[in-house]
Amino acid sequence: MTFRWYGKDDKISLKHISQIPGINGVVTSLMHINVGEVWKLEELLELKKNVNSYNLNIEVIESVNVHEDIKLGLPLKKKYIENYKTTLRNLSKIGIKTVCYNFMPIFDWTRTDLEKPLKDGSTVLSFDNETLKNTDANQLFDIIKKGSKDIIIPGWEIDRLSAIEKLFKQYENVSEEDLWANLKHFLEEIIPVAKECGINMAIHPDDPPFSIFGLPRIITCKESLNRLVKLVDDSHNGITLCSGSLGPNKSNDIPSIIRHFGAMGRIHFAHIRNIKQISNKSFHESSHLSSDGSLDLYEIVKAYIDIGFKEHVRPDHGRMIWDEKGMPGYGLYDRALGIAYLNGLYEAITKENK
Ligand code: CS2
Ligand code: MN
């Protein structure tokens, strides 16, 4: 069991994280490195030392982001792929075995509201497709900036905003098939290095799992994940199975997807969280409890236990509760409650099985 920690600037301390029952380590990254640049060994060693001093390990790196030039297949991809390889080699030197990344054009996860109030006064991240239709990318950035109270949210860095018009132009002629070809090229370059370093690469599904603003999005369902694992048919080419990202698409049967890719040994990392489907393409996040959302967390945890899953798990996002102030989706309290619940499901199901 792990917890995402955003480094020194995270309001949540390693001390508090280490007090969550059943925690082994953190999922983290070097937040200040611009996408495409090399992560230096000295900085990684320092990060590791800091985390270790709280009796925690760095279990997973999330994410080493992929430069847009790689996704677009532009000439500079060569340089950025070489940098990516160097970063992987440096990560292996501090003992990292799992690296999460995503291949979403321009935006990482996308929401139309970061503070949607629920009846109980908690707030959650939500996505309303009607709102998105009437919002342009600049307005969306304003929503994110307002909701985040100017805390820099990964995936929503200010430098992305300044480049947004250019990026949209660059993606105008990039089809889904082009994006697949660029992903294949990236994996053909990266996976041999990952293999040599003993690192499992774990792609995070697109969140939400469908196209937004007409941009291609390709990692959205079982079929696309099947295609992904075959692009480079090597066990180091695997998946971050995120229930909350695949969940908004009602035809994604998460437990069956877990069983399918688990049997293939291709799930290298698990994000477990719940969402409430409102209508086709609209949803909001919820507490982890099955009855609060649309996903059955019992069936999800059971599927992981049945496949003998031995990789790392983390709760993903949480609600903001108990007047906590901080990065929307990444507060301490509700994610810690999520862990307690997942621990309970895990203990109950494993004991039942015996
Ligand atoms: C999150 C992502 O949307 C989600 O479910 O887990 O922010 C995730 O961390 C990144 O997309 C991974 O690259
Ligand atoms: Mn996730």
Description of the structure:
It is a single chain. This protein is α/β, with parallel strands linked by helices and 354 residues long. It has one domain: Alpha-Beta Barrel (TIM Barrel), CATH 3.20.20.150. Helices cover 41% and strands 16% of the residues. It contains 14 helices and 12 strands. The protein has helices at residues 14-18, 41-52, 68-72, 77-93, 129-133, 137-147, 158-162, 164-171, 176-197, 222-231, 243-246, 254-263, 297-306, 333-353; strands spanning 2-4, 25-28, 57-62, 98-101, 113-117, 123-127, 200-203, 237-242, 267-272, 275-279, 282-285, 312-315. Strands 1-2-3-4-7-8-9-12 form an 8-stranded parallel β-sheet. The longest helix is centred in the middle third of the chain and has 22 residues, at 176-197. It binds D-mannonic acid and manganese (II) ion (MN). D-mannonic acid is lined by residues 62-63, 100-102, 108-109, 155, 204, 207, 242, 244-245, 271, 316.
